Amino acid sequence: MTDTTIAPLDSAAPAAPTRPDRSKLVGGLAQAAVGAYGLWSFGLGSRTGHGVHTLFALKLVPGSTGGLHPISAPAQPAALALTVVAIACGLVRAFAPVPAKALRWLAIGYFASFVLAFLVWAAAGSDIGLNVPLIIQQTALATVPLLLGSLSALLCEQSGVVNIAVEGQFLFGAFTAELTSSMTHSVWAGLVAGCLGGALMCALSAVFANRYLIEQVVLGVVLNLLASGITGFLYDRLMSSNGSSYNTALSFPDIAIPGLSSIPVIGQALFDNNLIFYVSYLLVPIVWFLLYRTRWGLRTRAVGEHPTAADTVGIKVIGLRYRNVITAGLLSGLGGVWLTLGLANQFGKDMSDGKGYIAIAALIVGRWTPLGALGGALLFGFATQLDVSLSSLSTPIPGAFLSMAPYLATVFVVAALGKAVRPPAASGKPYVKG
Question: What's the CATH fold of domain 134-420?
C-alpha cells in the first residue's frame, strides 16, 4: 500500500497573483504627468524666474488697520516644491500598495499642492498678490448653492429618485423668492415662498416619477426647461418692465458671530455672513445625523437600496419617496433663495447658470454622502470663483478660459472617478408594488 502524505494547512499552494488595478495605475500616472507639466510651466517658466516673489495678503480689506502683515515667498522655489509634491502623490497612487482611505488623502494632497503651485505662479511678481481671505470668502459663498443642491439631490437619490431638476428648482425658488419679497417687502416671506417654489418643482418630479413612471433623467431635463421657460416669460412680463415693483427685494443682513469673526484670515471671511450662509453649512451635519443615526434615515437608505425588501418589512416605499423628494425641494428652493435674497437682490433670466448640474456632479464626487457632497461643493465652488480671484493679476490665461473652469473641472473630475463611485442601487428605478 502506498503511503500518502497530507500537506499541512499552512503549506497551501500560493494564491494566484492579483492583477494590478489598472485605473489606479493610469490615474496615478496621469496625475504625475500633469504634475510634471506644472513643474515645467509653473516652476521653470519665465513668470517665476529672476528671483520674483509671490505676495500673500492676509487681510480681507487691504490697507485696513490691524491684522496680519502680508507674506512674501520666493515664487520659483515654492512652485517647484509644490509641483514635486504633486508628482510624488501621483507616483505613490500609481505604484504603492496603499488602502482606499490613503488614496483619498493622496488625492487631496495632489489637488492642494497643484492648485497652490498654480496660484503661486499666477501671482508671481504682482504688487497686489493673492488675497487669501478673499479667496476663502468667495469660495465659501460660491459653495452655498452647490451644497444645497447636492443635499437636495442626496435626499432624493437615497430614496431611489434621481433629481436632475435641481437647476429648475434653483430658478423657480429664486424667482418666487424675489417676486414675493418685492411685493411684500419682507425677506422672510420671500424665504418661505422660495423654499415652497423648490418644493413645488420637486412635487412635480415625484408625481411623474412615482405615479406615471416617467424616465427620471429625461423628466429632470424637461422640468429644467419648464422652469427656465416659465421664469423667463414672467420675468419679461413683470420684472423687466416694472422692476421697481417686482424685482427690488431686500437682502438678508450679515450677522457677525462674536469671537469667531475676529479670527485672523478666516474670521471676517467665514463668520460675518447672512443667515442662509450659516444654515447651509449647518445642514451638512444635520442631514448626516438624520441619514445615519435615525430610524427615518435607515428606512430611507433601505428604500434607496432595496425597495422590495423594505416593503416586505412594512415600509411604505412610495409614501416615503414622496415625502423625501418634496422635502429635498425645500433645500434646493433655499438654494434659489440664496441666489436672490442671499447673494444679490435681483432676479435675472437663467441666473442659476448651470449651478444645479454642478451640484449633482459634487454629489457624485462626494460618493452620495453629506460630508462628501460638502467636499465636492467646495472643490467646484473654488473653481467657480477662480476668475474673480485672478482677474487683477494679469495672467496669460484668457478670462473666458477661467470662466469655463468650473465646467471643465466638473467634466474631468467626474470622468476621472469613472466606476469608482456607485449610487444607491435603486436610484432612478421606479417601484411598482406587487
Answer: ABC transporter involved in vitamin B12 uptake, BtuC (1.10.3470)
